[in-house]
Amino acid sequence: MTLSAYVSGLGVLGPGLSNWPEAAAVLSGQRAYRPAAAVLPMPAILAAAERRRIGRVVKLALAIALEATSQAGEDPAELASVFSSSGGDGHNCHELCQALSLAGREISPTRFANSVHNAAAGYWSIGTGAMAESNVLCAFDASFTAGLLEALTQVVVDQVPVLLVAYDSEYPQPLHAKRPIPDTFGVAMVLTPQRRVPSLARVDAALSDLECDRFADPDLEALRCAFPAARALPLLRLLAAQTGGTAILEYLDVSRLEVRIEPCA
Amino acid sequence: MRPLLFKNFTATSCIGKGVAATLESLLEQRSGLRNCEFETVDIETHIGEVAGVDDARLPDHLYKYECRNNRLAELALQEDGFFEAVQQAAERWGRRRVGVFLGTSTAGILQTELAYRERDPVSGALPPSFEYGSTHNSFSVADYLRRRCRLEGPAVAVSCACASSAKVFGSARRMIEAGLIDAALVGGVDSLCLTTLYGFHSLQLTSPTPCRPFDVARDGISIGEAAAFALLERVPAGLDGGDVLLLGIGESSDAYHMSAPHPEGLGARRAMQAALAAAALEPGDIDYINLHGTGTPSNDRSESQAVTSVFGPTTPCSSTKGATGHTLGAAGALEAVISALAVKNGLMPGGVHTSKIDPTLTAHYIRDNRRAPVARVLSNSFGFGGSNCSLILGRAG
User: Fold this and answer.
1) Comparing C-alpha atoms, which of B198, B215, B224, B199 is closest to residue B384?
2) What whole-number distance in Å separates Cα of residue A115 and Cα of residue B105?
3) Contact call for residues B137 and B107 (beta carbons, < 8 A)
């Protein structure tokens, strides 16, 4: 069973990569990858009151979602969306667990509201006015591929454009020792049922038993392994190369996802 | 959308383990809410606690998944022959052709809350026995169930706060319709923890008394816990007229506020209209509405406006949260099961604990059980972040 769609916009943000053009230059070998702390912009679409409340993971998700939708020329307010993340806001989670372990157990109502896994999707909807359906997923290390499958099935079955936002952020200690995500990394893509002017490539995806693709470059392979959302990198490498080909993406222990890319030259 | 078979299902909540006990409680209008004595929680509130959760045993090879949430999942899995029905489906369709879609808001976070009390006094480290991925992480319950049931199809957790386990039906529907799978284990599991009890309390959203949805004096929610599952399958050729079908799903976002519903219920209205459109039904085709009906002043006001704007003031509706409590990420699946019981048994369950219906709420809220044929039910689930989902279930024949 093959699922097909067009990749019509991309957003990337992570350590040493501040947007899709930078990531494309690294992944196509035009420049070397130099790891550096991810720089997260404050999302302009939120009002001052909301800006004060959001954490790093929301800034990350909104930044890549905005890059992908603007590249696709899509009005965010009309787009269905799929958000997929392994862990939500780790700092916020730590503060809540810490407060609950102390006498008094005074916790901040804002922290509690922000603790929901769908916080980034909620702020996206508030900031853009999007009232379309929005799903929020988690599949631990398989979160990117689970999100891609969900978005592709929605494009194919409902014949609507879908914004996929896959993103992960770090926990502080002591949770960091148990889930050592080192920084923030995210990738967003607008998937459309038909080819559009900004479409980069057609993607055909199917479940596979083959081994997943890895990087020869140790820094890029370390990046791929460090963040669930970075399991997208073999797909991004194909999109950056603009030559077409096939990538095998990590998914569950029993299956992988094969994605074939045909550039819209 | 193409209807899906909703034949095998089960639910475990404070009103009963399995559907027979659940139905009996609904018929007797019994509530499972009790004064909160959970763990070390010191809040004046009522909760819907499931008895015997911590006595449930996980299989030895899945010891890393030990936490209250997965124990509750295991407890529920053993009711109504559900585990066996899943195995039969796996044999019929193939293990790779059955997916797993589970809703949860907090998964096994209680495990982390307990671990934070046992941090090393010098290093601050969590105890070595603490497992993050198979307990705390939102995926843990979906991962537990796919391993427990030996299913090899796509698997995912949906975590959209209190709409989570209604939205799983949408994910499963799309994957079946796309042809990736033929059947899906769908449901929701959420268990009591300090984060939600103290969290809702910090927002002043918990009631000191058992919650009273749509009551003039309603003052908040009662938190409950539940596990509810359904096996969704392609509709077979020879359908039994008594079977239940999933007919429609509608999803929307509020685009309004993180922890308050849209005051006029615009997002809720959009979800209900989308569900009707997906099912190709008119508002008059719905016999009973199982409300989100949390018992907070703002939810019930906003939902009543939304319901009335779509259905007018005559369609009977009620919230079963006065009986079960608000089971958060499990509420959508629990109330889908209650909706299926309504269809199969010709029962519109009256809302318990509500003594004087708020006269400013225009939806037709029922407090007493009604026995009448119920061909189609609409069930609402709304969550923080403005996430909305409506399901329509109905009789096949």
Assistant:
1) B199
2) 10
3) yes
Mean pLDDT confidence for B346-371: 98
Nearest to A101 among B116, B170, B387 (CB): B116
Average pLDDT over residues A232-257: 97
pLDDT given for residue B190 in this prediction: 98
| Bridge-based pairing state of the strands B244-253 and A201-208 | unpaired
Tell which residue, B243, B101, B245, B248, has the closest CA to residue B185.
B101
Tell me the CATH architecture of domain A3-263. Answer: 3-Layer(aba) Sandwich (3.40)
Task: Given the residues B46, B292, B353, B364, select the one marked as catalytic.
Answer: B292
β-pairing verdict for B376-383 and B387-395: antiparallel
CATH class of B4-395: alpha beta
For residue B159, give the nearest of A132, A138, A149 by CB distance: A138
Contact flag B253-A130 (C-beta cutoff 8 Å):
yes
Could you state, in order of their start, the residue ranges of all structural domains in chain B?
4-395
Active site residue B326: yes
Indicate yes or no: CB of A118 within 8 angstroms of CB of B385: yes
CA distance A214 to chain B (A): 22
What gap in Å lies between CA A134 and CA A54, rounded to an integer? Answer: 19
Q: Is the pLDDT of residue A206 over 90?
A: yes
Q: Are A96 and B195 a contacting pair at CB < 8 A?
A: yes
**pLDDT of A259:** 98
Mean predicted confidence (pLDDT) in B119-135: 98
Number of C-alpha atoms within 13 angstroms, CB side, residue B361? 29
Within 8 A of B200 by CB-CB distance, chain A residues are: 112
| Distance between CA atoms of residues B66 and A242, nearest Å | 47
pTM for this predicted structure: 0.98
* φ and ψ of B274, to 5 deg: -65, -35
Q: B98 Cβ partners below 8 Å, 6+ apart?
A: B86, B89, B90, B151, B152, B153, B181, B182, B183, B184, B185
Neighbours of B313 (CB within 10 A): 11
